[in-house]
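Researcher: Quick one. two chains, 772 residues in total.
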Amino acid sequence: MRSKTGQLDGPLVTVLMSTYNRPAYVGQALESILRQTYGNLQAVVVRDGGQSVREEIHRYADPRVVFIDRDQNRGLPYSFNEALSHARGEYICYLGDDDLLYPYHVETLVTAAQNHPEFGVIYSDLYKAHCRIESDGRRTVLAKNVEISRDFDRFALLQFNHVLHVSLMHRRDLLDRAGPCNENLICLIDWDLTRRLSFYTDFLHVPRITGEYYAAIPDFQQRCERISSRKQKSLNRYILNHLTIQSTRPSKPWPKMKDLSLILLADRFSSQTEQALREIWSHTFYPYQIYLPLTRSELDQLQRKTIVPNILGVPVAEGCGKPERMDAALRQCQGEYVAVIPDTWRIGFDEVAWIEKSLYPLLQGDSVSTAYELVGSKPENWGIVLDSAVLRSARRHYPNLPLRESLISAGVNIQLPQQSQWPFQLENLITNAEYLERNGAWLDAEILYKGAEQQFGNGLWMKIRRANALYHAGQYDAAGQWVASINDQRPSVSSLMLEARIRRKQNRLSQALELFQKARDILEGSEFYHAGYANGIV
Amino acid sequence: MESFERRKTDDHLAEDAWSDSLRGTIIPDKGWTQHYDLVKEMGDCHASMGDYPRARQCYDRAAELAPDEAGPYVGLGVIHLQSGELDEAETAFRVACRLDPKSSKALCGLAMAAQRRGQDQRAFDGYLKTLEIDSDEMTALLGLFQVSCRMGSFGQIIRYLELYLEMHPGDLSVMFSLAALYRRDGRLQRSRELLERIMLLDPGHAEAQNLLEEIDHSRVESIDRRTTCLNPMG
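Model:
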């Protein structure tokens, strides 16, 4: 619905921005909020200490701006929470103080939200603008890449963030359940937020480029310093930060996430048990709760010794055997899925989906009455993941049998997950395709991208990869057709350049130049001046 | 020989031999060189279309964006070369060589400038150096061919043409030139085989047909001569 002025009528949207020591860019960032074609906006800007930006903010004298001018530096999560406390919008957007929204960003997201009210989070695509900072502070843009344009994948989001902070808009009320920004985090704040939001709602991907975020390219010296300082000073903090996010369990109920209860079986509490707990913590990205059946004295010992989160001690009697311990833990389990693991189980250092490989087929709904063994299981060291109702039923009917025998007697189909059932098949296909490309097997790579699209969607992303592979294989007509269809739908710098190169190979130089020029215009800022804003940045 | 000569036009230089091999990253939306690549390639397009002022603007911008890249200076060198400004061309190619001593295009540009100045030996050495770095460099191959013809030394060029044909077995003009060189070198059987292959691939190839006829004719003459020698009385 549009008003008489042609503006989209809709809910109030609050854009949050925190700034710290970036007076050179913050004005442009704020301007990009205020220039939105969508009018029903509120901007909350927080100065998180550092240099004054009062002049830059007050220059706009816009009643839609709330400016919190704080001297103390408290960090990004704190600032966002402070900004949130002033937010009145039904929806929340975010912007970095050195990033830019294109004028149609909010309108694009609100339109999608109105058309698909079942989605609580809407996100678009962004350019990552690699830039060189000149001696006078100017940014010279060297590339604008759409590094991520991925359809929502809840499982993948648990392991890495594919929804950029600046690109998303979410309902404000979702934070009542998901909780505010975690102020203990030092980085990956955006991933922490999107991960938690995914417990409560589906995300809608709108494959339109609606802004850009900047990444300065350090010179060689800086690069070396950065790597060494990261290694020496903050690697441990970074890992801890990562683990904190991975093991966060927001408040229940989780309408969009099924819980995993992990029963860790130990004969007694030992260093082996501790090691197993640490390995589970560092390797499990799917939300889990560990149930550890031990005697009371062992549980006291555990409480004193471990920092591993998400452990629920289940007291059992002295001399209790493994089946009894397991049954005691099972009575406490709340997850839809349950895993039973001995504390002798060791997880490989570089294993990325140790338990998820067996859980994933269950999440895909392959078969409820199938239990999946852990990859690497042996008779003497055996772990399994299955539907908790199935396990309960088996234990109810065959309480005196060991676990495996009770499952077999209950007719549960025990399987080892096939490689094709493991998660991250899309990533595997892309890795394989890139390997083929590096070896010049472009047409084989194109076939993989085609298959990936058929199986996993992500149409635009896969299509541009296909067109690029066809181009390198010398199949200019086919490549040209693909990339032209991409450019009709969503032109980007790289897709325009690819089409230009194809036209050049086809000796259509004028057409190539037109396409190159379009790409150049984007690189040099045309999207920011879209919708009649031709006067440049103040 | 003529077909080979005809290919060495300014257009060919600007468009094919001088265009960078579309560097950048092989995967879209990766890497930092996009802006540079784009402006440089626009420069190449303008140069191909003969719009040198615009090409120059693009190359200047590309050099600003990536001051360590040789590509824009090669592009500028080509423009100067095509405008007959040999001193300026050499300067640009030298800058490119300094930035990237392994730039086959910059070395080839220097060799071309030398050839234009009539410095055949310098050009010959330059082309050879280029081909050592990139045996696929067509312009150097063509230049070497021309200079060799003028200097009358074919040993090196035959080797490079054979190498090139191994990589591009269907290139008719290189096949024809090699056939012509074999013939000049007295290797008539090899020349004939190559010409027959050309005729198989392109039955309407008039130059190959003519050369084939010339070889056959000279064979007949040679047989006649031999017969006459053996039987002077006829």
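The first strand of chain A starts at residue 13 and ends at 19.
Researcher: Thanks, that's what I needed.
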